[in-house]
Amino acid sequence: MNVLVWTLIVPLATGAAGALGGPRRVKEAVMVGGLLITFLLCLATGREFLDGAIPAAFGDALRVDGLSALVLVLCGFVGLLSATYGVGYLRRNESRSLVTPRMRREFYGLIPAYVFAMLLVSVSNNLGVLWIAVELTTLASVFLVTFHDRDTSLEAAWKFLVLGSLGLGFALLGTVLLFAAAQGRLGDDMSALNWTRFMAIAPRLHPFTLRLGVVFALIGYGTKAGLAPMHTWKPDAYREAPSPAVALMAVGMLNGALYCLLRIHLISKAALGPAFSGGLLLTLGLLSVLIAMPFILVQWNVKRLLAYSSIEHVGIMAVGVGLGAEAGVFGALLHMTYHSLAKPVSLFSAGTLAQLHSSSDFDRIGHGTFTRAPFASTLFVLAAVMITGSPPFGLFFSEMTILRAGFLGSHAVATSVFLAALVVLFCGFAFQVGRLVLGPPRDPAERRVPLPERFDLGTAAALGAAAIAVVSAFYLPAPLLALIHAATRVVWGAP
Amino acid sequence: MTANVLILCAAGMLVTAYLMVGQKALFTAIRLFGVQSLFLGIVATTIAFSESRPELLVTAALTVLLKTILIPWFLMRVIDRIGIHREIEPFLNVPASLLVCVGLTVVGYRVSTGFPEGTRGVSHHLIGVALSMLLIGLFLMVTRKKAITQILALLTVENAVFLVAVGVTSGMPFVVELGISFDVILAVLILGILVHRIVDRFESMDVSRLSKLKG
User: Fold this and answer.
1) Which of A235, A344, A355 shows the shortest CA–CA distance to A296?
2) Does A129 contact B176 at a Cβ distance shorter than 8 Å?
3) Which residues of chain A are within 8 Å of residue B141 when distances are taken between CB atoms?
4) Cross-chain Cβ contact B213/A236 below 8 Å
5) Is a pLDDT exceeding 60 seen at residue B119?
6) Which chain B positions have a beta carbon within 8 Å of A311's beta carbon?
7) What is the pLDDT of residues A166-183, one digit of tens each?
8) The complex's ipTM?
9) Per the CB < 8 Å rule, is A169 touching B171?
10) What 3-state class would DSSP assign to A211?
């Protein structure tokens, strides 16, 4: 069996082992070890691709081109980070005896399972397998949303699953219609749904059926990506799920859903030209950035704040692709990479703050967290600087690349609106972070720390993630950059 | 003959969708969904014979087994355990809902004329019915409050997608369909578990009470 297959088997086996009983220490070691091996295997797969091979399995149902390789590596990376931080996160709850054996089984079983599903998404070439993999990510994460078993987590999980299933219903219809658009030219064996086969016959797809299918598929997978107006599950799920799981949603799932959108976009582009699905992506992306704006300004919860920031970022990526310029595509993929590196830092530090105060609501955390939790607060400010796209960090460069592509291309008006929204979002985010972190605690009760901050595994994981994110702004490893370029070639279409 | 059977079954599916809209007793709604899936099974079987595609028989068998027997049985058990049998007054009353659904059917049929197969004969009806059912499912989703009805709405959308799949393409590749069926049953199971937890917690399965999270 080749490396690609092992990349998928290892996290699955890790999840299965985690769902069984066993001493806590063993479970922790198995999860971190399993996902470390997974990450190394992802790197090996990426390496294999860069060496000129196209890793594939099961009759090309799984196939790694540049786009897949980039998403795969980022996914494996965030899987390892989340597992490490997750162990620290759960230990803190263990120290307060908040963890039941059921929670332990769910946590150590579902996190690797979720990683498995996301990796499967990122290497699916077969549109049917892709759909199944996305559905698996949804199913694997539902019980992570209900993890803390509050009234509100049931509400969030219900919305998440119903909206997610509806979105997937749409995506399935989209897939069926794409298949129908081929009018039997693809045959009816398993490989008929392969994306590569669709691309080969794209000009002969029936236009009306294809258009309808593309619309349904983009709306469906857009729901999973959290593009407005299908984003409403996101703030709720982010608030309720434990922070390590949210990091997987915000990076792995987001990248995976974007991967689906790009595959559909590429079929549509090859058959109908770039304007149709590109225009749709541009509209949805712009709408997401605009919708995030008011909600960030009036936000009352730190994890919901990060959810709206994630809606903003997926919007930025969609805009980058939708602009229909090579630089825009490159900017979007660069943005995806930097976002994957920076976002976990913000989620981990915000998660720690929430854990120390037993709540992620601003009015429960209070002001001036810097005096109570200096590590987490510093990291949160640093992360905020990075994810709002301030120089000298990576997201600044990717946003500039997209803006430049927009102004040089034919979408000057849309780009101006986009730029204005980015500025407002920056200010809103800075305001919220300042309110949370800076200044003296306003009332005496806020001086009391529910759980004192210690330098533990969770803090170390957040610190490590921050170090990597900061370094990446100045030095992107050459192979990673090569993967971004390879992914750009896939999305832009040049050989 | 084949054409008549197909059109009859498609019409049957549409009628059950309408009846679900006009129905407040949850047991009846679940049975209606079962009947609808049975019609879908017959459509798949008929096409399997008329176009000699034996693998569609497996699809048909799966549909009947899962959606006519297993899922309705499971949902009824959930209702029995929690003892809630009726949908409360929907956001829109029944006559108005039915009128809206007529409009949705017109839209569905109108869109179906754009397909290459869509302007004539059997496929026209299959696609028209499927798109109408899709819209009706969405409509049920937004106007009903009970968790079980929302699950049924979701399953109606799923049935509509399958009808398109067998009607337009004579079925997706078999392995993929197997995976999809597996995922659907898993989703319904998880939804059922969530309904249980919601009822335990809120002593109601009225999802309009799930409204603490805003902004």
Assistant:
1) A235
2) yes
3) 162, 166
4) yes
5) no
6) none
7) 999 999 999 999 998 888
8) 0.92
9) no
10) helix
Instruction: Spell out the SS3 assignment of B154-209.
Output: HHHHHHHHHHHHHHHHCCCCHHHHHHHHHHHHHHHHHHHHHHHHHHHHHCCCEHHH
How is residue A91 written in tokens?
A: 């230990």
Give A143's contacts in chain B (Cβ within 8 Å): 190
Across the interface, of B174, B201, B215, the residue whose CB is closest to A298 is B215
DSSP string for residues in B15-53: HHHHHHHT--BHHHHHHHHHHHHHHHHHHHHHHHHHTT-
| Domain positions in chain B | 2-207
pTM: 0.94
Q: Which helix (H) or strand (E) holds A57?
A: strand A56-57
Taking CA–CA distances from A160, the nearest residue in chain B reads B191
**B101 vs B116: which has the higher pLDDT:** B101
Segment 286-315 of chain A within 8 Å of chain B by CB = 295, 298-300, 304
C-alpha span between A40 and A80 (Å, rounded): 10
**Which whole number is the average pLDDT over A230-254?**
94
Q: Measuring CA to CA, which residue among A417, A401, A418 is closest to residue A325?
A: A401
Helix (H) or strand (E) holding A63: strand A62-63
Residue of A58, A125, A179, A302 to mutate when probing chain B, most B C-beta within 10 A: A179
Place A122 in a pLDDT band, splitting at 50, 70 and 90: very high
**Which residue did the predictor score with more confidence, B197 or A212?**
A212
CB atoms within 10 A of CB A488: 23
User: How many residues are present in chain B?
Assistant: 215
